[in-house]
Amino acid sequence: MxxxxxxxPNFSEGRDLxxxxxxxxxxxxxxxxxxxxYSTDKDHNRCVITAVGEPEALRDAVIEAVGTATAxxxxxxxxxxxxxxGATDVVPxxxxxxxxxxxxxxxxxxTAAAIADRYGVPVFLYEKSATASHRENxxxxxxxxxxxxxxxxxxxxxxxDFGPDTIHPTAGVTAVGARMPLVAFNINLxxxxxxxxxxxxxxxxxxxxxxxxVKSMGVMLEDRNLAQVSINMTDYTKxxxxxxxxxxxxxxxxxxxxxxxSEIIGLTPMAALVDCAEYYLRIENxxxxxxxxxxx
Length: 296
Prior knowledge:
Layout: E1 4-7, E2 10-11, H1 17-24, E3 33-41, E4 46-53, H2 55-72, E5 88-97, H3 101-119, E6 123-127, H4 138-142, H5 145-152, E7 174-178, E8 183-189, H6 194-204, E9 214-221, E10 226-233, H7 241-253, E11 259-265, H8 270-281
Parallel strand pairs: 5-7, 6-7
Antiparallel strand pairs: 1-4, 1-5, 2-4, 2-5, 3-4, 8-10, 8-11, 9-10
Helix pairs in contact: 1-2, 2-3, 6-7
């Protein structure tokens, strides 16, 4: 059977849908590549694309998409709630079928080299592709964001793995790497007080003593006047969605605040949701092969 790999590139454009369509177009009508999903968020001012394909074909489509984003997005004019450092902010490769993290790492490094060579965009390798321990966590690389990155990159420890030693003037910096499947899981609160969301995010994220496989931050949804706890679940098999959800509910009660909804950005593994169904429905001895779609 063919190797199947997934890529979930994040681009710093969530308001101009014409630009988003042009970027997503790199994944359309390509042999051995399938565009599964793309979503935009006006508050985050960000687009997340999900595509799968055979590794080399997927790599080439991603490189094309990065070229389009580099040409269309001017980071000097960008603003949004989500931290960002580049027009193409981050490019993760995830093994799906008949391939390994090592295969994803190889494709990530080939992609990073091509981005730097063709477009003059500096690239940091992160997660399983990182060349140093302080570069594994994307938040460490992104700290300072686009506005502070040129000064940050003057330090020897923050020289990029590929490309020039300073930012691209309009496209900034990009991170590329191999990782396990991630679930982008956001929880909305019935308050407009961003401080509360920040405090809850502080308590649940690993870097502050929270769950091992959770990254989180507070975000303001301006169009709904709601504060949000924005979460990346980096290994749902070891830290479950329902456990984090219940903890956010518990912490929110300390502030007299309730959870009014949650959302999943992009695609997510079925097992992550089945795990929640087992917990909330108290299902006993449930097996994945009891799901109709898995037997088709």
